[in-house]
Write a structure and sequence with these properties.
By secondary structure, this protein is an all-beta fold. Helices cover 2% and strands 45% of the residues.
Length: 379
């Protein structure tokens, strides 16, 4: 959750919200009849539940038409609250979910967090997560499962250096070459004197790892980057900044090095964004989910489609409205012609405190492909 040199704390952001109920609606100026086929609270967090913060979701397809949801499961709402990683399984495309079960217990002094999950070339599942001991010491771990997430091997530290190796949820990507790449934000003793956005990568299914060069960005507190492979095999990184816009950088060598970053025309507060290809193959369009405003509030939560690998974007449609709520840390998954998007929401309690439940929206992919082009991003 924590970004490097975080400018706005989660608590201060939440203090600015209205306490009206949350609902989905269209972006201003966009007249569209499309909408989610499912909208639900997939992980409850309220005054009665043990979970107070259901954060950082990720969904992956399992065998036999099942889905696995993994998420941060905290007993309080603060970033350093005790927490584990829990899971739920759906047998009906995300309409209903089973009881939660433990994916990863807390091996950190504070918590385990910011998980993502992919399927390796071997067919195994690989879970990646951060072990948080203190703000200056966050390490990334990996563990694998050969039985579709029911049991896991022991987690291994893949950033065995002093430093702040932090990511956000649903960030691990398997490139067409077989390389695993995980974008990070922070600093590491492996690259003394540098800070900001960079990536780690593995070419042998996670047995060994390499730390790439940092993106050359000296302002804007770059943090919590996300990457996607383009059709020409370049890797594009979108970066959270304090500059009011999403910044991007390109890699021609699978994340080992990066061109200088450039601003897009996509407004964004200091909040993470999510970008994936839909469907999840080399021929699909790109889907972006982000807070479509300069901020500071994390609202609205919007999405847009690109048919040209991020050069232009469709008109945005809001998952959540601009006038109330706080909604962020989205994830994207595809399943049988549908797109599943998770994100946290804000739930005010009668005593003035709050919890952070997780919502799920499911959209028909064909509906998203109908969105009309609107604007271009600087390239």
């Amino acid at each position: 959750m924590n970004g490097f040199k975080k400018a706005i704390s989660l608590v201060s952001v939440l203090a600015m919200v209205f306490t009206m109920p949350l609902q989905s609606d269209a972006a201003p100026g966009v007249r569209s009849k499309i909408g989610p086929v499912v909208e639900s609270v997939v992980v409850q967090a309220d005054e009665y539940s043990a979970t107070k913060r259901a954060f950082n979701g990720a969904i992956i397809e399992l065998k036999h038409n099942r889905l696995l949801l993994t998420y941060d499961d905290y007993s309080d709402v603060k970033d350093d609250s005790p927490g584990v990683i829990s899971g739920k399984v759906s047998h009906d495309g995300g309409r209903t979910w089973g009881e939660k079960f433990l994916i990863q217990d807390n091996i950190g002094e504070k918590n385990v967090t910011n998980q993502g999950i992919i399927r390796l070339k071997t067919g195994e599942l690989a879970l990646f997560f951060a072990k948080q001991d203190e703000h200056a010491q966050i390490a990334m771990y990996m563990k694998t499962s050969d039985d579709e997430g029911m049991t896991w091997d022991e987690p291994q530290n893949i950033t065995p250096f002093e430093g702040h190796h932090v990511t956000a949820n649903d960030r691990a990507v398997l490139l067409s070459s077989g390389r695993i790449i995980i974008p990070l934000g922070g600093k590491t003793d492996a690259r003394p004197g540098k800070s900001g956005a960079f990536a780690i990568y593995s070419d042998d299914n996670g047995d060994t790892w390499h730390i790439g060069d940092f993106v050359n960005m000296q302002e804007g507190a770059p943090a919590e980057p996300v990457v996607v492979e383009l059709k020409d095999k370049r890797v594009m990184m979108y970066i959270r900044t304090t500059l009011g816009y999403i910044y991007k950088a390109y890699s021609h060598d699978g994340g080992a090095s990066w061109d200088d970053p450039i601003p897009t025309e996509l407004e964004s507060p200091y909040a993470p964004v999510m970008i994936k290809r839909i469907p999840d193959n080399s021929n699909g369009h790109l889907l972006l989910v982000w807070n479509n405003t300069k901020g500071p509030s994390r609202r609205p939560l919007s999405m847009a489609v690109s048919r040209d690998d991020g050069m232009t974007w469709s008109q945005p449609v809001n998952l959540e409205p601009p006038d109330r709520g706080v909604n962020s840390y989205p994830s994207i998954a595809t399943h049988h012609g549908e797109v599943l998007i998770t994100y946290y929401t804000y739930n005010p309690l009668p005593d003035g405190s709050y919890t952070l439940p997780m919502k799920l929206q499911i959209w028909r992919m064909s509906d998203l492909f109908k969105l009309k082009p609107e604007s271009s991003s600087k390239s």
